[in-house]
């Protein structure tokens, strides 16, 4: 009986000991929840949605306010080793653009991040950004980087992370740059449209 009982115990214990797959979010203040409580940011809301739907995923949000693509690139390797994610959401570039940094460098950083995540066996969702029209031709070239990379790396693209808020100033904090708590569920719903098909 003892071998049978041992097998039964192991069988019953197996579902609770299997680790959930991880979604790694690598972003800036827009994903770190600048000005908000951590649980209000959209990646935290994502974790709640996954739990509600009993999807076997956890969320590791390593986003940092002020982060650039160079900073994200420098931190990604250790994050991939630590979290071993099944899916990586890359939501960087806004600070590069607002500072007018060289787009070739931004492209190279994002490309290296996508490649590293894919080589680690993770699926990638690239979240694009846009700049105000007063940035002129630079704004158009900036936006094109995301589409070009997604096409070249054959990865999923969410063209504009803040699409649902673009024409709704009331959903931003007084600085007019960072989304409010009320905006976070809208961002989650928008991200979900691209993310959900990748959950397998």
Strand segment tally: 5
Largest sheet: 5 strands, parallel
Class by SSE composition: alpha/beta
Instruction: Give me the oligomer status.
Output: single chain
Number of helices: 8
Termini gap: 38 Å
Name the overall outline: globular
* Unreliably modeled segments: 3-18
- Mean of residue pLDDT values: 92
Question: Helical proportion?
Answer: 40-55%
Topology:
Elements: H1 2-17, E1 21-27, H2 29-32, H3 42-52, E2 57-61, H4 69-83, E3 87-91, H5 94-98, H6 103-119, E4 123-127, H7 137-153, E5 156-158, H8 184-195
Parallel strand pairs: 1-2, 1-3, 3-4, 4-5
Describe this structure in words.
By secondary structure, this protein is of the alpha/beta class. The chain contains eight helices and five strands, in the order αβααβαβααβαβα. It has helices spanning 2-17, 29-32, 42-52, 69-83, 94-98, 103-119, 137-153, 184-195; strands at 21-27, 57-61, 87-91, 123-127, 156-158. It has a five-stranded parallel β-sheet with strand order 2-1-3-4-5, with helices on both faces. Helix 7 links the parallel strand 4 (123-127) and strand 5 (156-158). Helix 3 (42-52) crosses helix 8 and helix 6 (103-119) packs parallel to helix 7 (137-153). The longest helix is centred in the middle third of the chain and has 17 residues, at 103-119.
């Amino acid at each position: 009986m003892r071998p049978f009982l041992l097998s039964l115990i192991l069988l019953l214990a197996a579902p609770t000991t299997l680790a959930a797959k991880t979604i790694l979010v690598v972003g800036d203040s827009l994903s770190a929840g600048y000005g908000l409580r951590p649980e209000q940011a959209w990646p935290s809301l994502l974790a709640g949605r996954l739990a509600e739907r009993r999807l076997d995923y956890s969320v590791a949000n390593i986003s940092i306010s002020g982060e650039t693509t160079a900073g994200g690139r420098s931190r990604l390797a250790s994050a991939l080793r630590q979290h071993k994610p099944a899916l990586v959401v890359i939501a960087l570039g806004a600070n590069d653009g607002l500072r007018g940094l060289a787009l070739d460098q931004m492209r190279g950083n994002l490309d290296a991040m996508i490649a590293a995540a894919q080589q680690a066996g993770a699926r990638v969702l690239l979240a694009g950004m846009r700049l105000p029209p007063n940035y002129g031709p630079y704004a158009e070239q900036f936006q094109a980087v995301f589409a070009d990379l997604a096409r070249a790396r054959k990865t999923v693209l969410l063209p504009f992370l803040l699409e649902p808020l673009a024409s709704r100033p009331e959903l931003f904090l007084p600085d007019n740059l960072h989304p409010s708590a009320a905006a976070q569920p809208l961002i989650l719903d928008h991200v979900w449209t691209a993310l959900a098909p990748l959950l397998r």
